[in-house]
Design a protein that fits this description.
Elements lengths: L1 E10 L2 E11 L4 E5 L6 H8 L7 E6 L2 E2 L5 H5 L3 E4 L11 H8 L8 H11 L1 H5 L10 H13 L5 E5 L7 H18 L2 E6 L2 H7 L2 E6 L2 E7 H6 L1 H7 L6
Parallel strand pairs: 3-8, 3-9, 6-7, 7-8
Antiparallel strand pairs: 1-2, 1-4, 4-5, 9-10
Helix pairs in contact: 3-6
Length: 237
């Protein structure tokens, strides 16, 4: 579904990703963990075309999308729920969801709206409410729901648990698991909450200073003493 090979990305003279290679197979949940500043969000944005990589190749469903404009990448079955949610705060929940559906048009809007509201019932209660007045958890549900309105084959999730209470974190991760189980949606998940992410994921990668340093199944990475020491202290809380 997604393959990165030798991808290097920089902001001016600052190299953020160095020779990154990873794969996400159809139907998998793959997580990328790492500390703040490791390059996780840069990797997500590079997949989406901004910034473009200095070198390397990005393939989606066998098609080379390296350096392709973002709007064309998004029309190829990829959706991105970015770090910080980035909903439209002055628009209502319904209007935000309509923005997510623009890629497809109106033909399947009602069906997709019902699907998103079934996954996140709180959004159904808030359809007429402005996005900026929602709680943090509700805004995260809206960001994911907006991404799902385009019927993606690959969902990029960047820090979905950021700033949320533990109960809401569990709800968000349960929704991701349910989507993957029932629809086969492929997910690339970037997370600082390594405990939840590795328990959810089929496979994972560890990113340190812009480089992939480890990979394995979620269970294998959870069992590694070096991963536990670096990322899992207090993770259960």
């Amino acid at each position: 579904m997604l393959s990165l090979s030798g991808v290097t990305t920089a902001y001016g003279s600052i190299v953020a990703l160095r020779d990154v290679s990873l794969e996400v197979m159809p139907g998998e949940i793959v997580t990328l963990i790492g500390a703040n500043g490791a390059g996780k969000s840069t990797l997500m944005m590079t997949i989406c075309g901004s910034p473009a990589p200095l070198s390397g190749r990005i393939l989606h469903a066998g098609e080379d999308i390296t350096g392709m404009p973002t709007h064309l990448i998004m029309r190829r079955g990829i959706a991105h729920a970015p770090e910080g949610r980035r909903i439209f705060p002055r628009m209502t929940v319904l209007e935000n969801l309509r923005m997510g559906a623009e890629v497809l048009g109106t033909a399947t809007f009602e069906e997709d709206l019902e699907r998103v509201c079934t996954l996140f019932p709180r959004l159904r209660e808030r359809l007429g409410q402005r996005g900026g007045t929602l709680s943090g958890g509700e805004q995260q549900m809206l960001a994911i729901g907006r991404a799902l309105m385009s019927r993606p084959r690959l969902l990029l999730l960047d820090e979905p648990s950021l700033g949320l209470a533990p109960m809401l974190v569990r709800q968000i991760f349960a929704a991701i698991r349910e989507l993957n189980r029932t629809t086969g949606l492929t997910v690339l998940l970037v997370e600082q909450n390594a405990w939840h992410a590795l328990r959810l994921a089929h496979r994972g990668y560890v990113l340190v200073n812009g480089r992939i340093t480890m990979s394995g199944t979620g269970a294998e990475l959870l069992a590694r003493p070096d991963v536990r020491a670096a990322y899992l202290e207090g993770g259960r809380a």
